[in-house]
Design brief:
The complex is a heterodimer of chains A (278) and B (429).
Chain A (H helix, E strand, L loop, with lengths): L4 E5 L3 H11 L1 H15 L3 H26 L10 H28 L1 H4 L8 H28 L10 H25 L6 H12 L7 H6 L4 H4 L3 H13 L8 H26 L2 H4 L1
Helix pairs in contact in A: 2-6, 3-4, 3-6, 4-6, 4-7, 4-8, 4-11, 6-7, 7-11, 7-12, 11-12
Chain B lengths: L3 E14 L10 H17 L12 E14 L3 E5 L6 H8 L7 E7 L2 E4 L12 H11 L4 H15 L14 H13 L5 E5 L7 H16 L3 E5 L3 H7 L2 E6 L2 E7 H14 L17 E8 L6 E4 L3 E9 L6 E9 L4 E6 L11 E8 L7 E12 L5 E19 L32
Parallel strand pairs in B: 3-7, 3-8, 5-6, 6-7, 11-17
Antiparallel strand pairs in B: 1-2, 1-4, 8-9, 10-12, 12-15, 13-14, 13-16, 16-17
Classes of the chains: A mainly alpha (278), B alpha/beta (429).
Chain lengths: 278, 429
Amino acid sequence: MNTRELIIEAGRTEGQYWQDLWRFRELFYFLSWRDILVRYKQTAIGLAWALLRPFITTVVFTLVFSVLAKLPSNPGVPYPILVFAAMLPWQFFSSAITECSNSLVTNSNLISKIYFPRLIVPASSVIVAFVDFLVSGMILVAMMAWYDFVPDWRILTLPLFVLIAAAASLGGGLWMAALNVEYRDFKHIVPFLVQLGMYISPVGYSSEIVYQRHPQWSLLYSLNPMVGVIDGFRWAILRGKAEIYWPGFVLSSVIVILILASGIWYFRKTERTFADVI
Amino acid sequence: MSETVIRVENLSKRYILGENLQGGSTTLREKLTEGTKALSRRILHPSKQNILKSERKDFWALKDVTFEIQQGERIGFVGRNGAGKSTLLKILSRITEPTKGHIMIKGRVASLLEVGTGFHQELTGRENVYLNGAILGMSRAEIKRKFDEIVAFSEVEKFLDTPVKRYSSGMYVRLAFAVAAHLEPEVLIVDEVLAVGDAQFQKKCLDKMGQIAREGRTILFVSHNMGAISTLCDRAVYLVKGQVKEEGKADAVVNNYLKDIFSNKIENLNELRFPGMGKDIRFFDIQLVSEDGANLLFEQPLNFLLKIQSDIDAKDLFIGTSIFDSLGNCIGTHLSEQTFSPRAGQRFIVYQTISNLKLAPGSYYAGFGIAWGVKGAQVRNLEGVVGTPAFQVLPTSYNGEQFGDWHPNWGRIVIKDIDMKIEAERNGR
């Protein structure tokens, strides 16, 4: 039998980290499983919540932006579907960020008593948000049936955009989670940031309004990583009736990669002291 | 053919004590105001930099700790509160990093620093077995294989599909320990987990740990229960202020540790102080007032004299008094109804008399604290000193009444004043 030899020294964990992440994959599975189980334990409430929240927000947004503000939809696309195609990734992103930011603090009993790569905790929060995302995806299917709106081949590219959304969620979530451990009052800032993000992202309106009416702002607008993700979702779901502004999409995607990389870097940097300060 | 499985060399761990006593994290608001202040100071008084450096203090929880553990050894760690035992176990379990030093561990390590880590109240017993197993490092296949065994050990078969929030605390602990007991690591690290559960279950746990050790696994064990250390461990390490004071046969080390506690040779109350305590207000003298040194007759009142020095203005502070038995179990605590409000620089003398305690013959020590807040809810401890004075209660009372052997299993309090009538039951009535 080969016995593994473990060396513990200051600053030593670095090399073993990614190996450990793989070794603890079952814990990752169980933590996600626990969070999903707890969330959907009272099945009616858990499920209803995941369905109702995006649905009601979509109804309200349709009323406000389409009926009251009279913003145009893309030609041939019912406004509720336009909104919901953006609501899906936005809900995924915002709930992942919120869950991530609290995840380390709510699991502080684990962190102060057991060793495992801490990255698992916020990552499993993203998984939970992803399950909610899949559940609310059912509404989209129902809406498309209602409006008799059939997607074309572009829907097959959707997983790519889901992946970008997941990367943005994890990257942002890692920042929030680590900052929340270090500064306990940071949790008051997160809901505000999320709320603000909803308005600067094209959730209730089409991003083409920005590109067409204010072309000089297009690139600046695309610095928001969710702009690229939402444009991608609309392009894939709405039969290409929503055009992607490619320079902006590339810029958004690059920002996502930067956020993810810097999130991992910052999380890793602060991680070793989590057990001491939490 | 014993082989070294753990080698610890010059291990040190430094904590930085911030200004806030809770030792918790800073807030962003504090950081920002601090930064603004520092900036304005630099602009206004460019020459006076560094004068008002923040009052952070280093605290070495461990300092140059070196020892080796052979395969199959059961080794106990003893020492007072704050001696570094728990920090050592945390570093060995990789929860926190050392500041300096080197550790080599061979084989799979499992650590049990708490019973039921990660148990979720909403989940059922069955679900929690899987979850807790995964948290402790078991694979899914392994848990599945041992599931029946775990359930049998825990004796909660009937409630497996009930959420654990409906469990009694006894059931909860039994299920949690059952999972932990079925780990098969090469090295098992255990901290004080036997403090919970009833006596029968504790014995079961000790037996299980003995069995684990006989299978050639190595056990590292921390407890305040000296009885458990001497029965379970073959070797012990005695830590004082983060350093190894003594290392050797468990019985000998435990005896020396108890001797130190009961010798009352405390030059400095700092040695007994909880880390981070006593910065603003502190005891500078604690005495037992008695005619016969540290020997008291049964039922003789305890008279303590405490001297307090305050560096701050504070309001409505109260004093806590606890008595511990020789194994470190707290027998009882008193939180004072009277409060006092010191001003900076003021000193106080406190006279305490505890009567009617009816402590059984044996060895005891006291602990004292100063705190502020609402008892039982939000209390902020400002000072805590445990371990002095130590005293013996003799098996003789005032009126010459003698106790024979007071058996340890009878507990630490002699119950008197019971109304009791014994009658023969008469048939046919």
